[in-house]
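Posting this for the archive.
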Amino acid sequence: MSHPTTNTVVPSICPFCGVGCGMGIQVCDGKVVGVEPQLNHPVSQGKLCTKGWSTPYAVDPIDRITTPLIREGDSFRPASWDEACNTIVEAINAAQQEQGPDAVGVIACARATNEDCYAAQKFARAALHTNNIDHCARICHSPSVAGLRQTLGSGAMTNSISDIALADLLVIFGCDPTSNHTIIGGQIIAAKLAGAKLLVVDPRSTRLAQMADLHLQLRLGTNIALINGLLNIIFDNGWEAREFLDSRCENEAALRRKVEDYPPERVAEITGVPVDKLIAAAKMYSQAQRAMLTYGMGITQYISGTNNVIAISNLALVAGQIGRPGTGINPLRGQNNVQGACDMGALPNVFPGYQDVTDSALRQHFERAWKCALPAQKGLTSLGMTQATLDDSFRCMIIMGEDPVVTDPDQNHVQRALQALDMLVVIELVMTETAKLADVVLPAAAFSEKSGTFTNCERRVKHITAAISPPGEARSDWMILGELATRLGYNGMQWQSAEAVFDEMASLNPLYASMSYAKLIEKSGLQWPCDAAHPDGTPLLHSERFSRGKGRLIAVDHSEIDELPDEAYPLFLTTTRLHFHYGCGSMTRKSPLLERETPVGVLFIHPHDADRLNIRAQDPVRISSRRGTVETRAMLSDELPPGTVAMPYHFKEAPSNQLTNNAQDPVTKMPELKACAVRVEKIEVQEAMPG
């Protein structure tokens, strides 16, 4: 591949969060030297956040893995692609001969392209003969997929990001877009300044909460009780959308009976939100002309995650705040292609397009297309693979671009499992904490070094073009998996281009059926479903009917957090994300500009708790849970309620997942990352004795 040797700008998409901002990659002499915003981009409208502006550091060739590596003792040696692939294939064959196809599995990557993720799930199913395929949506928005599919028939944002400007009420539930999805956060602030009302539901007093017309500062884990209380008030006052409920929803009577158990006084006791604020919020939401609700992991990362999402859906349906511009239910996706990875079927229970792997007719359809027999049972989740390894029933794992040692709950548990594998293969840009445990490390191409597509949180599929060549021997993930498939004896992944991968996927995924590279480039992206009935995409879902027909109201109950504070561990710990960092930090922490903004690890603690524990700002502290101990520095913050402390999960030096609980939502196996019990102690620094 040849590239210009003079200054040029290649259109692309920001590789960080799920907003999918348009950026131009500035290239000089075959190197990325900067980025610039795309002025006419339909989402970002000529803006980038601090992370987006620092993209060149994320793909800088310094510290990149440029050749396959094979472990020798405690270190790695360079190897040829031939030796590395043969080593992997031999281990896979040995494991499957001894324990069957399900002894192996794949973790795909929400930062990889749609083409890479499609290849990952096809590799698992067609080449490995297992549905053991998953990715990080398991620990962010798997409850959104599961919950909204039950109630609406589709588990994605119902509206477009541009609808923020059309709403007269914006509801922000369990997230802080100004930190995590900054361009969306800026649009929310602009809408507020233009006259929209703002309602924030969050245990923290976030930046948006401090601007809000009404902030419901509920206790951790009481989302369902609060929503059931709002529904109780809405029904009791006759504020429900009567015509909408009669014509478009089912199961209202059962929901009414359930929320009768949640009068405002009881809900105030459970949630800590005063009755007058509950009544004000119920009236504000139900009586708004156009109320747009967005939510984040403050809803999903609980053992009640799926039911939390169902409760959100109940609220929107009862108020009729869905199916129109400026309304809807809009989960904010954390990584740039987590929506696409789900759409591609990088999940243990669905083919591309959310088609059930246990449906025999669908399975036969894919068997004909892929020319091979396919497994009939659902596969293991990512955390299920971890546990199966410790149970001696899982032997080999391939991980694409994820760092579970830093991001998955209970770090010690994860490390024990990865070290127990016969073969751990990591496909990566740099040596992450997970890659350091691998048996074979394969060099991956970054987003700026390959062509393909990403799907943002509003279901917009955008095409990207390689701006530079990959360093050394790095390859795109779909190429790597295609090579391994061929060596395993499956010849159905010998694609010659990313476009060929996309065309195959679109032929099997009804949501993408009318998409092509040419059309994506011509239209500056398309929102799914894009099919014969919607050839130019679908900016708004559920305008006339729901994907499942009628919207389904499902009664759900409040349930306690798995691990409540007690005498030994008297504080709640919750996890957060910081404005200047992203994910496991493998990209943003390469930027000296971003790294200087935040100390290496931090514990946020309310001044009242700090005073009681004799802790001052910047004091060294030790945080302990039933799973581990972390030492870091204290930062005083009245954004948290007393009794709750918070840690970000970006820092390997102070990994919050040493502490977090892996108790799981029974539906999606989502771990309860948002709440566990901890103890905090000041570390007394002993001065050296004189002499």
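The chain has a mean pLDDT of 92. Residues 81-99 form the longest helix (19 residues).
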